[in-house]
Amino acid sequence: MGDLTAGGSIPMHITLVNCWHDDNKGDSAIVWGTLKALQVCTSNLSLRLVAMFSEQSPFFQNAFRHTLKKFPQAEINPSPIPDSSELNRYQWLVALMRSMSPLKVKKNRRILDNTDLVISTGGHYFVTYGGPGDLLRIYAHSYPLLLAWRARIPFAIYGQSIGPLHSSLSRHFIRILFQKALVIGVRELLSKKELVGCGLPPDRIHLLPDLAFMIEPTLTERLERLLQRYGLKPKNFVVITPRQWFKKGDFRYIAYLDALTTLIHYLRARGIKVVVLAHTLGPTPFEDDRIACHDLLERLTDHDGIYYVQEDLDPEELSAFYGYSRLVVGTRFHSIILSFTAGTPAFALSYSGPKAPGIMDLFGLRSYTADISNLHPKALQAGVDHLLCNEDNLREQISKKVAELRANIVSFTQEMLKKVE
User: Fold this and answer.
1) Could you give the count of Cα atoms lying within 13 Å of 227 in the half-sphere of its Cβ?
2) How far apart, in whole angstroms, are the C-alpha atoms of residue 417 and residue 421?
3) Mind listing the pLDDT tens digit for each residue in 293-345?
4) What is the distance between the alpha carbons of residues 211 and 231, in angstroms, rounded to a whole number?
5) Which residue in 110, 180, 120, 121 sits closest to 152, CA to CA?
């Protein structure tokens, strides 16, 4: 295992599973925040990260390029089973079935060798969409936790969003698995309600803020050059982070782009610069925000005062970039969180499950949330206008809340680690 320790005593060996990719800046921020929280709570730490991609996946090779620069002692391991993006449906089903065989289980348990605690990295993957592959996806994400259970290694549910879980079978599976967890920490009350609906005792389910709140903005030389290149100065621009969600010709996607286009025209009429930012660069084509950015920019006939940023920034640099802006209008959930870590107000465009509404509730900012599938240009404009008029008060409110959430994360993590010692 990679050693992040100081001193000569025996370190605690922790394995993070379900780690995605540094192209997805939200997932990268969660991993970084988890590592930072662990380092705050113990100076004697040995760490392993298990990816969601197999060693054969082309995505695996550079999945943690930023993470390894920040945490060079961390050990990186591929997933023992392939991700669904690596194979066709039939091949993936066969791979999942093979993973259940006793010989495969024995071999795959090696990813947890010498582990004292397994942490299921935060995110939103215990969810169903109403299709036939729902339970298979949940099983794939649960697989390393099932290995830990089999090996009698404690595992933690650490900053997850849960649900919606549409089928009784998925709820039953989650109840059985989560009952075995050392601790359960979910990001929102909506997720807690989902787990209570699965039959888990409410007192076993704790609220744990998204681990990306541990990110601190860092102004690097590279970021300074980026800001200078576009002539961007503190608080003289608004950031918009679009993403794909619907199919390209879907009327809801067209309405979403229309609403953002109307907002950009409104901001430019007020003399405010606009940055259209590709928050996430992949790794899968559906996650690549550059596609949505291009779709949006194509609708604009006048690009004066409008800038397109697609640099491969790390989570701390992104937080600092958002911190330089007056406001972030974010479809990407973690563009909202990273703006908050820098004290910048944000308007959230919610697209999936409880994530955005739950977090905005925590900050008392639920009124600055709109559903991407039912986005009204005038309502969006009014919400952004109200934020701009109250940005100074909101900055103070946001900064205080972020400090409180960071303290909650550290407290939860300390209690979790005490259960292992």
Assistant:
1) 21
2) 6
3) 999 999 999 999 999 999 999 999 999 999 999 999 999 999 999 999 999 99
4) 32
5) 180
